[in-house]
Amino acid sequence: MSRTTDTQNLADRVTEELRSKLIAGDWEPGQRLSEAALSESLAISRNTLREAFRLLTKEGLLVHEPNKGVSVAAPSMASIMDIYRVRRMIECQALAQAYPMHPARSAMRTAVEDALRGREERDWPAVGSANMAFHKAVVALADSERLDTMFTHLLAELRLAFGLLRDPEFLHAPYVDMNAKLLALFEAGKLTEASNSLHDYLVHSERIILAAYARRLAEQGVRA
Amino acid sequence: MSRTTDTQNLADRVTEELRSKLIAGDWEPGQRLSEAALSESLAISRNTLREAFRLLTKEGLLVHEPNKGVSVAAPSMASIMDIYRVRRMIECQALAQAYPMHPARSAMRTAVEDALRGREERDWPAVGSANMAFHKAVVALADSERLDTMFTHLLAELRLAFGLLRDPEFLHAPYVDMNAKLLALFEAGKLTEASNSLHDYLVHSERIILAAYARRLAEQGVRA
DNA sequence: GCATATTTGTCCGTATGTATA
DNA sequence: CTATACATACGGACAAATATG
Fold first, then answer.
1. Strand, helix or coil at B90?
2. B82 neighbourhood in chain A, CB within 8 Å
């Protein structure tokens, strides 16, 4: 019984629980999270919840206003652009410098297969998850623990922005084939080509997200 | 009185205080930090200290063992290699893609001048700080808030490893001229050359650190 | 191998300051 | 402007895990 993930700290377990709720879009961006209410509904103490809040704030999933508590982060267009800037830098470099026999290659392959299956079954959340897994596998090519965790946080934050846009098919479907093509280039050893392809891909994806986001802001602006 | 950095949370202020003590090498790596003792000596409650601990653990400066509390991180050779792997990826890319008139250029120039002055006065801690500032400026060329904060954490962790090696002249002096040369290349618009130069630089630096670290481990091994 | 002391993990009650209706 | 609600921070309490003799 030496599982470290099993009976971690209560605060850590709560952190994970909140994180998954956040990236699943269970709460509206901007929504305030009351310490008292949440701690009661989770049946934990306020102190424990505060520890979890602090971590998630550092990860960018929550925002903290002094003396006003925490609320769900509402990704701005600037933050989306920032996230994509980092993604391009890290992912393209990882792909360009990788050696084709790297173990992460099988993870890329699995992700592509999962995405194809998901598309066939029109299970768009599954396609989205497979897409995330594909990009994590790309970063894993760089063999860096720190890069992996940083990238995980980055994707979580981006997922918060995705949560704002309620059209998973539109957002994820186009990239299934691009991932497959990317994997083919990579397995063929055409690293530079693959990396450039990934770069264009990410520029394109960023543009789509930003456009959808701007549209949503406009709608909200009309309403408000 | 609307300074946000002035009267932040107590926990945040404590976090900063602990962080600067950690990178200054005030505590031995591996040393246990008792909640009760530290909270008393800092005149804060245990709960507040625990929040600070949690953040610093996430930054890699402290390590947490369940039911055994936190202790100062003792960077391993593997973590040093990991840090340098990330540094090469981020810094070289930032330099290669930067446009020469970027505002961060002046920060690079200031850092070089500070380092030159520090070397003249044989103020090695100052040289070390200037060196850190130079590399932060390089990363700032990429114009990414997230990259900047990630890199700051990375350098803090590396500084913990430097703290283990008590020979600042040996560690920092050789890089003053390399930084100056790098800046010259950058200002001349020779981006590829500058980036390659930086890459070799970082490989060299990593080797020096690892060698010094291994030497120190050997000494300790004999002693223990 | 056992009993004891120490330390962490977690919770609660409460006082104080800040924001908002 | 007052009152209320809430976040912030503290200290005490106790169980559980760990270290020590």
1. helix
2. 144-146
Q: Do A154 and B146 touch (CB under 8 A)?
A: yes
**Cβ neighbours, 10 Å, residue B114:** 19
Residues above pLDDT 70, as percent of chain B: 93
- Are A146 and B82 an interchain contact pair (Cβ–Cβ within 8 Å)? yes
Q: What is the pLDDT of residues B149-182, one digit of tens each?
A: 999 999 999 988 877 777 777 778 888 999 999 9
pLDDT in tens, B73-124: 988 999 999 999 999 999 999 999 998 899 999 999 999 999 999 999 999 8
Q: Which of A51, A94, A154 sits opposite B50 (nearest CB)?
A: A51
Domains annotated for chain B, with CATH where assigned, are 3-72 (1.10.10.10), 77-219 (1.20.120.530)
Residues with CB under 7 A from strand C: A 9-11, 43-48, 66-68; B 32-37, 46-47, 50, 64, 66-69
The helix (H) or strand (E) run that includes residue B71 is strand B69-72
Q: Side-chain half-sphere of B128: how many Cα atoms within 13 Å? A: 19
- As to burial, measured by CB atoms within 10 angstroms (0-12 exposed, 13-18 middle, 19+ buried), residue A220 is exposed
Q: The whole model's pTM is what? A: 0.91
Q: Is B196 exposed, middle or buried (0-12, 13-18, 19+ CB in 10 A)?
A: middle
Closest residue, chain B, to A3 (C-alpha): B66
